[in-house]
Amino acid sequence: VEADAAWFDEVRRLASERDAVLLAHNYQVPEVQEVADHVGDSLALSRIAAESAASTIVFCGVHFMAETAKILSPGKRVLIPDARAGCSLAESITAEQLRAWKAEHPGAVVVSYVNTTAEVKAETDICCTSSNAVEVVRSIPAETDVLFCPDQFLGAHVKRETGRENLYVWAGECHVHAGINGQELAQRAAANPDADLYIHPECGCATSALYLAGDGAVPSEQVKILSTGDMVKQARQSSAEEVLVATEVGMLHQLRKAAPEIDFQAVNDRASCRYMKMITPAALLRALREGVDEVHVDAGVAESARESVRRMVSIGQ
Ligand code: 13P
Ligand code: SF4
C-alpha cells in the first residue's frame, strides 16, 4: 500500500462511513499523522478519546494508549491498526510485581505512568503522563509516601522537580529513550553551542543535560525537559535557530510543522520505536476496512483502573 492521495482519500472516506475518529501519537509515521483527525501526546489524546462523540476510536499509537481510551470509554469501539504494537516500558512492571511492592509500603499512594497495562492501572491510585507527572505528585500530601512506576528516568525527573524524599521509583525504562545517552548529547551540544535542547524525561540523558547546564557547558535556559506535546508548544513560541531533540524520531515531523524556520535535529537518529512504526499506512487502511484489531479490556479490570485514569485526565493543562 502506498500512502498516496488515493490512500488518503480512502482512509478519510472509511473513517466517516464508520463514524470513526482517528487519533495519532506524535511518534507515528508522517503519513499517519497527516491523515489523522488529531495528533498529540498521550495526555491530549486520552482527553480527546474521552470526549469524542464518534462511536469508534482508531488509535494510531501503541497498545496501552488504545487500552486507556477503552477504559475511559467502555461503550465505544476502540481499534488499534496492529495489536502487536506494545511498549517495552509498559512491560517493565507487572500487576503482580506492583502488588508485592505495595505490600512493602503500606499506606503509600501509587502513581503509574500511563505507559502501563490495564492490570497495572487497576492497582494504581493516580495515573500520569510526562505532561502532568510533576503536578500529579504535587497533588499528593507531602507526608504521604509515593510509589512511582515504571519509568526510572521520569521518576528521577519528578523527584528532582518536587524535591520529595518519600518518592520511591521503580527501575523500568523505555529501550528507545534509555538508548539516547549522555555522551552523545554532550558531543552534539558541544558541536552546536547555540542550539536549544529538548529532552523527553524518559531519556537516559535527561540527568546529563542538567549536568551540562550545571557546568555551564550549555546555558541553562537552553535546556528544556518536555513531554512531546510540550515540545510542540515550546517550538511555537521559540526564537531559537537550532534545536537538538532527544526523543523518538517521529517527533521531528510535528516540530518542523510547528516551526518551519527552526532547524530541528535528532540527538540520536536511530531512536525509532519499532512498536510505534507497526502502525503502517496499510495497517490503518485494514483497520478501517475490516474493523480490526479491536481492543478489549476485562470489565472488572477496567472498572478498577477507571478512577486512576480519570484522575490523570483531570490534572494539569
Ligand atoms: P508523551 O507523548 O506523553 O510525551 O509520551 C511519550 C511516549 O514515550 C509515549 O510512548
Ligand atoms: Fe514505549 Fe518507548 Fe515506544 Fe514510547 S517509545 S511506545 S515508551 S517503547
From TrEMBL:
Any one of the GO BP annotations: 'de novo' NAD+ biosynthetic process from L-aspartate
One cellular component (GO) term of this entry: cytosol
Any GO molecular function: quinolinate synthetase A activity
Enzyme class: transferase
InterPro entries in alphabetical order: NadA (IPR003473), NadA_sf (IPR036094)
Keyword list, A-Z: 4Fe-4S, Cytoplasm, Iron, Iron-sulfur, Metal-binding, Pyridine nucleotide biosynthesis, Transferase
Listed pathway(s): Cofactor biosynthesis; NAD(+) biosynthesis; quinolinate from iminoaspartate: step 1/1
NCBIfam families: nadA (TIGR00550), PRK09375.1-2 (NF006878), PRK09375.1-4 (NF006879)
Protein name: Quinolinate synthase
Gene: nadA
